[in-house]
Amino acid sequence: MDNEHNLFLIAVGGIRGVGKSSTLDRALQLFPKIEVIHVGDRLKEFSVAQTGIYFFDHADSTKDIIRESFSISLLESLLGGIPTFLDLHFTDIDEEPEKSLQPNIFVKEFRHFILLDASDSTILERRRLDLSRERHMTVNSIRHERDSEFKAIQNAAHMHKKTLTLIDTEMDIDTVAVRILDSIGILTQPDKSDE
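and the corresponding structure tokens:
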């Protein structure tokens, strides 16, 4: 694909419970001229539409095929020139801790990588507040997830010679959202044109 559509894709990784979705949704509120795509949600919809089967009910090898098809489909659907933040995971310790989940055809299009992180105890506390999702609930598991996610996103950024920015999510959501926008040089003043 070689960024033929002038895509401006920013990968935002981090483990479940670190605050990716909430923070990116807040960044969109502060600066509505960006786009935010929650890749996991779109992938699940794609899986059902293409196969009639919920994504996580597939064998791991089939998941990889679906991820690749989904990535191609998503890349073809995006408009160029709009900063597009992709809320995604690079690893899943339940699938295979050292395996990068994102297909290279997708990752090579990313212009910038951001890893959101917080302490093990903060992530555990956030997970306890949202028991609607199945997540590991021990500090050791969280530490393992954080280590795997960091290694995978660091390797991807290094392989594609792109910048990786680490952002701590221990502070208030507005500060984290502004830091995400600042990390790629976007004006961070809220857009008041619609008021």
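(Above: one complete record from the training split.) The chain has seven helices and five strands.
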